Amino acid sequence: MDDETTILESEIRGQRMFVGEYRHNLDPKKRLTIPSQWRAQVGEPKGLYVLQDVHHKCLRVVPSRTMEPRLEKMMKVSLTDKNTREFVRAFARRADQVSWDSQGRIRIKDDLLTYADLTNEVVLVGALDSFELWNPNNLNVSGSMDEASFLNRAVSVDL
């Protein structure tokens, strides 16, 4: 898919979904343009959390309205459990909170760009309640699924 991908306006439990795929390049200042359709999907507040994905070598971008209830839940548990506090600390160190400028660009911390091997071209992939940022080479290796596997999994989730 290219930058002209149509975004389906869908809501599940009142939450707008990110679907489709876009390709953008980081600019010389390492800023990434978020597609205007996806900026509209973010809603209020207009912030994003950028996180290391726990399963793949990519970044997960989550709207503040989606992430903040998860963070509140984490904070309640973390006050009493040492292991959870250590996880929360490690999680927070590996995350970033960003908002876009008037051109729709975000600046992602260098250590997150390095983690996901993002140096020039970035593939933005919708993941329903969030979206992912991939190096095209990494996406081709670990982020793709053959047609037979796709069909089998679609059946298993009643699609």
Commentary on this structure:
This protein is an alpha+beta fold and 159 residues long. The chain has a single domain, classed as Transcriptional regulator MraZ domain (Chemotaxis protein chec, 3-Layer(aba) Sandwich), CATH 3.40.1550. Helices cover 36% and strands 25% of the residues. It contains 6 helices and 10 strands; from the N terminus they run ββββαββααββαββαα. It has helices at residues 36-42, 64-78, 82-93, 110-115, 136-142, 147-156, and strands at residues 11-12, 15-16, 21-25, 31-33, 47-52, 59-63, 96-99, 105-107, 121-126, 131-134. The strands form 3 sheets. A 6-stranded antiparallel β-sheet has the order 3-9-10-6-5-7. A two-stranded antiparallel ribbon has the order 1-2. Strands 4-8 form a two-stranded antiparallel ribbon. A hairpin with a 2-residue loop joins strand 1 and strand 2 (15-16). Helix 2 runs antiparallel to helix 3 (82-93). It starts with 10 loop residues before the first strand and ends with a helix.
